[in-house]
């Protein structure tokens, strides 16, 4: 017989620590994997550069670049709390948590006054700069440029944000193969035998150099020892 999991046991994992409500438009910080409501984290990062949960510094100038819309987590929450998706309010401690747009429709349909906190979250959602939220990913395959002289990565297939730069790919390979992220300058990344610049994004490479869109974006790496 399968053991049943109580909602109260997983509540901390599906609750936003900023508003203390169930996650709405769940968004996850890729640097530390803490999740928040989309409107809450965008408003918080307008004045801060750190994660509100663990205090990790995210980005010196634009911390929103490491925030990713987490559709998988949100779908899971909707399965656990189906009425949340329908727009029916849940009472969570002292905080009223709802799907904002559907909740407003719900209250208007029943000639009820819209609670102030719902109006507040609705305004925040409208102001979110969508272009800064990472919701596009690219499947990437990394292979050695010369298989005879270079080690294979234990996990050559990874899923990355589309805005990820080649510099970060170099750091990843350097950490895995050289065991030192600071030696990333010794790593060269190729696509179709062409060395890629460190500021190129995966999105740009995928659009300009990747012909088979059904397959992962294939990049090659080489280790160039610096004396």
From TrEMBL:
RING-type domain ranges (all copies): 16-55
PROSITE patterns with a match to the protein in the record: ZF_RING_1 (PS00518), ZF_RING_2 (PS50089)
Intracellular or extracellular location(s): Nucleus
Record keywords: Metal-binding, Nucleus, Zinc, Zinc-finger
Superkingdom of origin organism: Eukaryota
Main subcellular localisation: nucleus
UniProt keyword Nucleus present: yes
InterPro entries linked to this entry: PcG_RING_finger, RAWUL, Znf_RING, Znf_RING/FYVE/PHD, Znf_RING_CS
Listed GO MF terms: zinc ion binding
Gene Ontology CC entries for this record: PcG protein complex
Protein's UniProt name: Polycomb group RING finger protein 1
């Amino acid at each position: 017989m399968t053991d049943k999991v109580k909602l109260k046991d997983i509540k901390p994992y599906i609750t936003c620590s900023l508003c203390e409500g169930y996650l709405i438009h769940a968004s996850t910080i890729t640097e530390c994997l803490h999740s928040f409501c989309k409107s809450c984290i965008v408003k918080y990062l307008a004045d801060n550069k750190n994660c509100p949960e663990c205090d990790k510094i995210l980005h010196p100038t634009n911390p929103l670049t490491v925030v990713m819309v987490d559709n998988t987590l949100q779908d899971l929450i909707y399965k656990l709390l189906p009425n949340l998706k329908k727009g029916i309010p849940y009472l969570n401690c002292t905080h009223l948590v709802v799907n904002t747009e559907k909740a407003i429709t719900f209250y208007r349909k029943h000639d009820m006054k819209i609670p102030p906190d719902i109006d507040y979250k609705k305004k925040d959602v409208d102001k979110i700069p969508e272009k800064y939220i990472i919701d596009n990913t690219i499947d990437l395959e990394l292979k050695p440029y010369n298989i005879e002289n270079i080690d294979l990565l234990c996990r050559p297939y990874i899923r990355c944000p589309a805005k990820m730069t080649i510099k970060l790919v170099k750091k990843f390979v350097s950490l895995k193969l050289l065991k030192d992220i600071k030696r990333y300058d010794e790593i060269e990344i190729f696509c179709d035998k062409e060395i890629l610049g460190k500021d190129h994004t995966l999105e740009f490479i995928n659009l300009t150099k990747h012909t088979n869109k059904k397959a992962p974006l294939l990049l090659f790496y080489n280790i160039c020892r610096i004396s």
